[in-house]
Amino acid sequence: MASNEVKPTAKEDENAGNWKDSIFNPRTGEFCGRTAKSWGLILLFYLVFYAFLAGMFVLTIWVMLLTLDDYVPKYRDRVPHPGLVIRPKQLDMLFNRSQPLQFSTYVQTLESFLQQYNDTEQERNEACAAGVYFEQEGELGEQRKACQFKRSSLSRCSGLSDSTFGYAEGRPCVLLKMNRIIGLKPRGDPYVNCTAKRENPIQMQYFPSEGRFDKMYFPYYGNKLHERYVQPLVAVKLLLNKEDYNTELTIECRIEGSDLRNNDDRDKFLGRVTFRITVKE
């Protein structure tokens, strides 16, 4: 009886052998087409090549670090004017004055932010002369002194006499500060001026008086040299009436009275800030 088994042809045996030899050839000792010596040389080449690249990278970083100052940024020409920042850090605020849970986040944010301005904390700083730049000289790395900015100077917006910062009565407070710029000495007498973008004006009250950033808080010497420095604040209390409730109010605040820019169309936060607030009852 004839067998039905199909025996592999010589060509199939040769193909199978070629495939196995491409992985490891026992006759030549090659693995994936290369001998041990060839693999060693190519691995050595890449080891030396990447070690050279790593060395060049480390050398470049080291040279760059030698040119940097630990206390003053090397390039400061891109930020010659400060931005204006608002606290609570919300550009859209909406709350019902009769529901504390709706404005509790704003109140907690203000309370937490003002901890560093507590009078007991600020009494450790210098009682500086108003209206005069507080310029200081010192040895390299020597700490600079900071002027006092007491929380109590914010009066009705300090959170001391009214723990809700006016939100419960529907007359909320917002705090404004300038971004820190090392060496900044604004010319003139900078102050904050806020206006409502509507026909009928909104009554506002500023703390400290006239919303001024006093010169004694300038210049700033940097985080390492001026560790106890705190930015001066201006508090704005919106004296809203019943006709102002249940309406979205757009408020724009600008730094006026100095050489600080506040009208750059490319940066809407340079020397100014705009926020919206809606108070319901």
Keywords:
20% strand; 10 strands; 22% helix; 4 helices; alpha+beta; four-stranded mixed sheet; 2 domains; four-stranded antiparallel sheet; Immunoglobulin-like; 281 residues
Q: Helical element count? A: 4
Average predicted local confidence, pLDDT: 88
What's the architecture of the largest domain, going by CATH?
Answer: Sandwich
Distance between the termini: 104 Å
Number of structural domains = 2
- The stretches of 5 or more residues where confidence is low (pLDDT under 50) are none
Rg over C-alpha atoms, rounded to the nearest angstrom: 34 Å
Strand content: 15-25%
The structure class reads: alpha+beta
**CATH topology of the largest domain, anyone?**
Immunoglobulin-like
Number of strands: 10
Order of helices and strands: HEEHEEHHEEEEEE
Largest sheet: 4 strands, antiparallel
Account of the protein in words:
The protein has 281 residues and is an alpha+beta fold. It has 2 domains: 46 residues; 196 residues, Na, k-atpase alpha subunit (Immunoglobulin-like, Sandwich), CATH 2.60.40.1660. The strands form 3 sheets. The chain has a 4-stranded antiparallel sheet. It has a 4-stranded mixed sheet with strand order 4-10-9-6. Strands 1-2 form a two-stranded antiparallel ribbon. Strand 1 and strand 2 form a beta hairpin. The protein is elongated, with a radius of gyration of 34 Å.
Short note summarizing the structure:
It contains 4 helices and 10 strands. With 281 residues, it is an alpha+beta fold.
Write the layout of secondary structure elements.
Layout lengths: L9 H14 E2 L4 E2 L4 H31 L17 E4 L4 E5 L3 H14 L5 H4 L50 E6 L9 E9 L7 E4 L26 E5 L10 E10 L13 E9 L1
Parallel strand pairs: 4-10
Antiparallel strand pairs: 1-2, 3-5, 5-8, 6-9, 7-8, 9-10
